[in-house]
Design goal:
Strand order of the largest sheet: 3-2-1-4-5
Largest sheet: 5 strands, mixed
Order of helices and strands: EEEHEHHHEHHH
Helix content: 40-55%
Strand content: 15-25%
Shape: globular
CATH class: Alpha Beta
CATH architecture: 2-Layer Sandwich
Number of helices: 7
Oligomer: single chain
């Protein structure tokens, strides 16, 4: 029986709308009891590129294909592409979006799609920057919303049952990926 590889990813960009900015990404790979943290970044980038780079660089760490992988990301941009299969229309339309404009970050999308298609990958959308210990945070409500928002992903054969304790852990791991993205930006400043 093969174990599941979990990716927890986040990207960030300080000054995203400006020509002069700094971006970073963080990723955590989890395979059984083995955890590996990664981070890096670049100058004059975008938040979306950093979100993609987090997932791409997690995949680059793998030694083989044919794995079952769960990607937990707070990026709507990344998660929705796979959950809503945007890439199917992009490919069918010659890498044009609904507005008939070129798809942004095509090079990154193509690389990521190549890696995803060599594995059994499920993407999950996680709310980012959550403090479950705060009195203002209704953790039970957030858990129910996570389950509802990811019901299609969770209904797949390879999907794990995500208990409330699992949910708390994946929030903590995604918060740590966010910290790693910020470390990368600090290193570039």
């Amino acid at each position: 029986m093969s174990r599941i590889v979990n990716f927890y990813t986040d990207g960030a960009c300080s000054g995203n709308q400006n020509d002069d900015n700094v971006g970073g990404w963080g990723a955590i790979l989890e395979y059984g009891d083995v955890i590996k943290e990664l981070h890096s970044g670049e100058l004059n980038t975008t938040n979306n590129k950093m979100e993609l780079d987090a997932v791409i660089n997690a995949f680059r760490q793998l030694k083989r294909d044919g794995l079952t992988i769960h990607v937990f990301t707070d990026s709507s941009y990344v998660a929705n592409c796979f959950l809503n299969k945007w890439y199917v229309n992009w490919r069918n339309n010659g890498w044009k979006n609904k507005k008939k404009e070129p798809v942004e970050n095509r090079d990154r999308w193509e690389e990521l799609l190549t890696m995803v298609e060599k594995n059994d990958v499920t993407f999950y959308r996680v709310k980012g920057h959550v403090n479950l210990g705060s009195e203002k945070t209704d953790a039970d409500k957030m858990y129910r919303k996570f389950l509802e928002n990811n019901k299609n992903a969770l209904s797949q054969d390879s999907a794990p049952e995500i208990t409330f304790d699992d949910f708390r852990k994946l929030i903590d791991m995604n918060n740590r990926a966010d910290e790693l993205a910020n470390i990368a930006m600090d290193e570039l400043r």
